[in-house]
Amino acid sequence: MRRTRIENRTGIVRGEVTALVLFALSFALHIVAGAMDQGWLFAIAVVLIYISATGFPAIAAWASRVSSPRARWVAVVAGAPFGLLFTGGALWAANGRAMAWWVPPVAVVLVVVGTGSLLAIRSALVAWRGGGRTSGTWQAARRR
Predict the structure, then answer these.
(1) pTM for this one?
(2) What letter would DSSP give residue 5?
(3) Above pLDDT 70, what percent of the chain?
(4) Which of 19, 17, 9, 14 is nearest to 111 (CA)?
(5) Using CB atoms within 10 A of its CB, is residue 68 exposed (0-12), middle (13-18) or buried (19+)?
(6) Domain coordinates of the chain in residue numbers?
(7) Closest CA to 59 of 31, 21, 7, 108
């Protein structure tokens, strides 16, 4: 069986790093907001943490800016373990820093729903901007 090559590994890595930086910035904001005792900023940071953790695979695929659907799915699959890890960590923290039996299955559900939602939003935006075709990059959608 012949294996196909992924045409843009650099783009996939760029997407993963971008999603990781977004999560890290959200996490840093939550630490700063907690240290400053700013409840409203802490709440915003927690929401950003959950969005960036549950949507990590979709954010990585979106930020990779690769043109082929196969390369985007590689970015989604490569980002899934990170999304599961970060979402599980957020649920662990929300549970009083205690692990419970429900954390891993809920993390899986949240990552699937979060990633699926962000991918659906991206497809709808591309279709709205580009006339109905959901494959290709954002640049290609703007050119159409």
Answers:
(1) 0.83
(2) P
(3) 85
(4) 19
(5) middle
(6) 9-143
(7) 21
